[in-house]
Amino acid sequence: MKKEWRKIITYSVVAFGLGCAGVTTINGLEGDQVEAAQTSFVSESANDIEQRLFAQSPRHYVEMEGKVRAYDGKNITILHPIHGEKTFSIASDAIISDRYIKLKKSVLAEVKIFDSEVYRIETERTIETYGTLSSLDNKKITVTVDNVKKEFPKGKFFHLDKDGYRGSVIGMPVSITLDSGFTALNAEIEDDYDDLDDDDHYDD
What we know:
Among the domains are: 67 residues, no CATH class; 35 residues, no CATH class. Helices cover 12% and strands 42% of the residues. The chain is built from one helix and twelve strands. The strands form two sheets. A six-stranded mixed beta sheet has the order 9-8-7-11-12-10, with no helix packed on it. The longest helix has 25 residues. The chain is globular, with a radius of gyration of 18 Å.
């Protein structure tokens, strides 16, 4: 279980691949050894850059998960399951990680942004969103974020993980895993509720 309460719009810290010329797509690598070597190299570079950029300006260094609504190579529009659409310009040295799911309209993706420009896009099979649990019934789960309620239909095998918590879950912070249709596949009560601070909430 994740032990940390991330920003409601899943804005957080990550960076990737500055210094690469052009928009690079990690796609179709030939040979297991080549693929493993390049994956290792990219990961190390990302960690180094992440630390440096965050140290420079943490409030200009964010990420967002959602569904791709538009993509043309220069700009990308992401629909967040709670906060709606946002459009970002893509840096000339951005890296696109879409080896398993091709980047296109309607797929899920995570975008990493520094100083208002996207420098990494990674396609995803599922995404997570966060809120305060308002209600739960047989068909849907409802969370509240910034005084706004949002309902998600529950998937067939939906499960709420209480992490051993025995009290009422209403009013507790919760993370929800969503598919591309924004259906809730599962949810998890966050157990560090008392540790929340202002930085854990979305800043526009």
